[in-house]
């Protein structure tokens, strides 16, 4: 029984094989056209889906010829060799060139924040400066001043005011819709319209004085530089030269010249009506050396010339002559004579007690030994100092500035900040040659008398309101 089934199965397989051979002989070779037009048009093949991911852009489609044997198709070749595919067939052509991938959108690899440095930071500073939020140097250093400027920009433009420059902040900075800094935006606290005295301390206000440091000092120094009271670069440290610039601004703005940048001083300093300086009073934040040039060098030469150390032309060019003058000044004032005008040299030159060139020459003269005489050696000295080198504090009464900012009479026997400011102002005007020590002694009295004589005032040696107004403000206000 099993043999019969096996025989039948083999017979069936053999018949299927013969059937396949017979049918294959009936299939016409597609390469042999024999002039017969294929029934399938080229349009049929263009609509036929392709295999796999091959795009239609990689297919070469040949349209069929016209039915009229005498008419040639618009792109039909002149001849059709027998080994070519029949006209109207679709021939997929594989291309080796890969499809280029789209270029990635430029993105920021990181954010810019406090402590960042480089060209990206400098670009942000430039954009902030263009919009009015930044007044410092575009030095590529992301400090506290830059951070505060970013926060102001973000707050003004509806962004999170975190001081961090991310993609959203960068996009807004570069957009044409970025809001500029409003005119009343200042780095100082907003002063409420009250009738309280100008110098009354208040926790909500700012008071900057000698020894202060930080971002607010940097902002103040930048403003003083912009107005011409200082030369150089903001250091963020309230030094003697900065104090001198504040005093100069206060005097020019009819403020009490105590060198303390309180609310009244800062409000005027940052206002659009702030008065500019005729000349700067000092240089900060830089180190001037041979080869430098500019206004800071010109101011340095002018000061060295006033003290007798520089004999050349005040041209703003730091050459060998200026270097020699700096060295001479440094030697005379017991500084390191390296010929570079650094922070200590500039502080001494503009705000310190200076030993002039003539004084240094007198000191250098050798003393000659006198022959003994018949007079006793215990003879009293011909000249005595007008005041002790170090005044005894308990012999002086300490005074402080009045909170209402009004002038009051300064006289012999007083000590404190108002005396120091008086001595400094007299020194700047060329009347005081002593130490700016804050003690109202004989040398201060003589300087006040000389000033009063030149200005046609009563020569009593007391710095009263009239003398102080003339010294700090330059003339007599109405009703003085």
Give a description of the structure.
By secondary structure, this protein is mostly helical. Among the domains are: 119-174, Muramoyl-pentapeptide Carboxypeptidase, domain 1 (Orthogonal Bundle), CATH 1.10.101; 286-364, Muramoyl-pentapeptide Carboxypeptidase, domain 1 (Orthogonal Bundle); 393-473, Muramoyl-pentapeptide Carboxypeptidase, domain 1, CATH 1.10.101. It is 36% helix and 3% strand. The chain is built from 15 helices and 6 strands. The chain has helices at 2-26, 42-46, 119-130, 144-156, 167-174, 215-226, 240-252, 263-270, 295-306, 320-332, 343-351, 357-364, 417-428, 442-454, 465-473; strands spanning 59-61, 90-92, 230-232, 282-284, 397-398, 414-415. The strands form 3 sheets. It has a two-stranded antiparallel sheet. A two-stranded parallel ribbon has the order 3-4. The longest helix has 25 residues, at 2-26. The chain is elongated and about 150 Å long. The relative contact order is 0.06. Residues 30-64, 66-83, 86-108 and 184-204 have low confidence and may be disordered.
